[in-house]
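Let us begin with a simple case.
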Amino acid sequence: MEFFDFGTIFFLIAAVVIFFQLRNVLGRRTGNERPPFDPYTAARNKPQDANGKPENVVSLPQRKRVAGEPAEDAYVAIDAFAKPGTDLNKGLRAIKDADASFEPKVFVEGAKMAYEMIVMAYADGDRKTLKNLLSREVFDGFVAAIADREGRSEKIQSSFVGIDKADIVSAEMKGGEAHVTLRIVSELISATRDKAGEVIDGDPETVAEVKDVWTFARDTRSRDPNWKLVATEEED
């Protein structure tokens, strides 16, 4: 029978100690974890190569701009989105001037994601999710409605089918705050049940068309990139 000599045993113990130390270090939070998901800016994230540049993109030399001079192509995406000279185009341009990263198409995609999250969070009574997506005034209104529903032991059974249309109908700057209003047409299966489980509103078997006019806002002077729902209106 062979036996380990003293040197072999020493290196074996050292390897075990190093393994546990590495595991402890790798398991710790460093403060560099990914931030919370932001539905309004997620669409801007593109795959990058090893050098940190977007894949399949050729960088061209650009003329240096004088401080305060708008970029020549700053409004190209906005002019393609809304007819130049219209109030909507002017409002979107004003937001672009205040926030160079603003892109209307990207915003709409993010707003659609936020719409679904808010609708389902309201149905589920998920106050935590709502708090991150709503202004103080709208949040208080939603929470009051949820509390009233819970007080009657009622529950909403809801399934989100999808969004048929989401169009920006107005945009403007109010001081340093950008406001964008969308008309959203969605399909939803929803029914409210009472304490006994009986349906008292809606239909759990029927897809209903819902038309909403929602306004989102963001303080462009803040480093916080998140937009919040500041006004809701249901269209007849």
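The second case is a distinct protein. As before, the sequence precedes its structure tokens.
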Amino acid sequence: MKPSMPDFGALLRSADRSACHLEMRDSYMDDPVFADWRAGLPVDRPEAYDLPEEYTTWAALVRETVGRGVVMRRARIVSEPVTAYIRWEHAITERHNVALGEQVRWLPRSKASDLALPGNDLWLVDERLVLFHWFTGDGEWAGHEVTEDPAVVKMVNGAFEAVWERAVPHARYTV
């Protein structure tokens, strides 16, 4: 039995000031939109493609969160040359993240060697709570852990800010 996904709606609705997402994998589980993109469908144009419900639900949640004044930042650490999955993420980031109000930056993995980083992808909410994501080697969802341990939150906040400082804003990063 697969572990349940945490309730992102509740997580983001609990944010008062900030929600930061750190992504460090070069690929994740198969996504039907990724498969369509690889097949050449124009998934980056709203008028040309109907997105699955989870994308529209996510978009509404991001708009709601940003609309309350919460700053949403997403940092992606990526290997170069990038994988097809990262090329796809980059191609849809303007529409699926930036246009909704997220700030997104990209950090080449080679520029992160001297940074102390957590071992897993995560969300950091208001510098008070961390949600770690666990994935299998194939990028399938494997579970999560939530912590409010002050030492862990402090470490994660420092790591995220170090990545953010070094990373390239989406508009300037090319794949």
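The first strand starts at residue 18 and ends at 23. The mean pLDDT is 91.
Keep these points in mind for the review questions at the end of the chapter.
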